[in-house]
Amino acid sequence: MVKTLRYSAEYASEVMDEIPPGYIDKTVCGCGLTSVALENDVHTIIAVPTIYLAENKAAQYPNARYNGKVLAVWGETKEDEIYAYRWFDRPRRLKIIVTYDSLPKVKDILDRFKCKLIIDESDKLLSQTNLKPHVIDEVFKIAEENKDTVSFISATPTPLEYMPPWISEIDQVKIEWENTMKAQPMIAERTFPYHSLRKEFILPFKEKGSMTLEGKTFRKLIVFLNSLRQIANIVREAALNKDECGIICGNSLTNDSKIAGIQRYIAGEMPKFLFITSSGFSGIDLYDSEAMTIVVSNTKRSWQMIDMLTDLKQAISRQRNKDNPNYGTFIYIFNQSIFKKSEEELLAQIDAVRKQISQSINLYDYGIQSGNENGFVPYPDFEAYTIFQGDKYVINEQAFLADKYFILEVRKQYEKGFDINGQFDDATEIKPIILPGIVTYSELVDYFKNKHQNGNVDWGGYETRVEWISVIEKCYSYYHKVWKDYTYAQMMIGNFGYTADQIKIKADKIFQEGRYTRKKAKEILQQIYDELNISRKAKHYDFDEIFNEVKHPASKGIRYVEIVEK
């Protein structure tokens, strides 16, 4: 039975001094449960999925809330560092944050000091593919030894049927926060998400130093993109200054070679462009008053779960600064058509893939038995949906669960937003803002003609088309006219400054379409010539060179200049 705790507080520290034991669904990210664990008066060891998360949390201490040292422990942490912290450097209470794979390093401390054990971001135990089976088994083993006091924490907990049976026997706790708000997506469906990120967002942002979309202005970018190769390509192709870039990614020689010249970000002042891979999705804290979050998803299978699994919720919640006017808003660039398909269609496709994978496993087994395993040709998605155990492949149930969970639950987060830690009592259902898709220069000219007021227009989602907007606005500023032919418009901008153009500009501002007596028309035109120091006497036929269509009618002895079209 699930025990539900309901709080109207903004942070967990307002309502609890210690995290309760059990399997905890905290429902929202950023509610401060980890801070409670690190800042209370209890010896505590927190196990986390990534090195970066351990370092990020530890780097925040000591601070105004807790004047003690927090030790980050991971693969390269030496035994003498742990020993020194344990006996010499530690504060009154031990506070250790350790990666899953290094939990055995601190097991002696856990047992000797009867520390509170917390498995943070517990859904990553089964969804993070780089964790080796023995690491997962060891974490569950140590947790089971402390099952009366251990706390598993996640905002997207793994269903119990996929966890060890003993976890179903401990307390099941769900925390509901009344004080939440809805995250609001700005959705950009694109055929090529990486290309869109670079052309529509990175380059215009770089050129102007800021960007405004749907009334949201931002001067820094937090980009969640789970491909180091693509991040390196974007930095290179957009010619970004690497000193203005930072990255959060796994710590390995291969990764270091890919990000050469880009600094790893841990904490402190955020760079203008911060790129984050899956190593930074969970639990980290980012504080900035000007940044906008962009999440990029590029999947190959049309029914597949977002390539970051359930990490959209995590990614959006990394920004902790509620003074940032963009808090709770994010841009989501994706290439999936799944939002247009029914749940039944998508589930049927998954079932079909499962059958294909099962057949491939049978073929592999047959190949082993007959000595022809080298001739085995796997199904295209074979590796994504299987695990090699012992001497055979088995279906990776977690991979299929991930896809089904996305279809049934997670895609609703993209369409309607989702609860995050906030300041409002009620979270109303919202609709996503759909950013405009592909648009031609000619269409942008029409948009300007229909929307502008004296040359001023709110470009909305088209704000990303910086080069085209610049041409359109300059043409209007120079000539009070815009052209649909992009090449011609650029030529006119290049020609601007010649005296004939200046005559046209001034005449456009003074003369309206309609009739003027020839005498009056020439008087006004002469004033323009005099202002521009043109030594010419104004003639009525000069108007034929200035405007698109001019007539010279006469009526009752009075001669006119009639401007038909400017």
List keywords for this structure.
566 residues, alpha/beta, eight-stranded parallel sheet, 18 helices, elongated
Q: What does this protein structure show overall?
A:
- This protein has 566 residues and is α/β, with parallel strands linked by helices.
- It is 35% helix and 20% strand.
- The protein has 18 helices and 26 strands.
- The strands form six sheets. The protein has an eight-stranded parallel β-sheet with strand order 1-8-2-7-6-3-5-4, with helices on one face. Strands 15-14-16-13-17-18-10-22 form an eight-stranded parallel β-sheet.
- α16 (499-510) crosses α17 (518-531).
- The chain starts with a strand and ends with a strand.
Low-confidence stretches: 301-310, 417-430
Question: How large is the share of residues in beta strands?
Answer: 15-25%
Task: Quote the distance from N terminus to C terminus.
Answer: 77 Å
**Shape annotation:** elongated
Overall SS class: alpha/beta
**Largest sheet, order of strands side by side?**
1-8-2-7-6-3-5-4
Rounded mean pLDDT score: 81
Helix % is: 25-40%
What is the quaternary state of this protein? single chain
Write down how many β-strands occur, each being a DSSP E stretch of 2 or more residues. Answer: 26
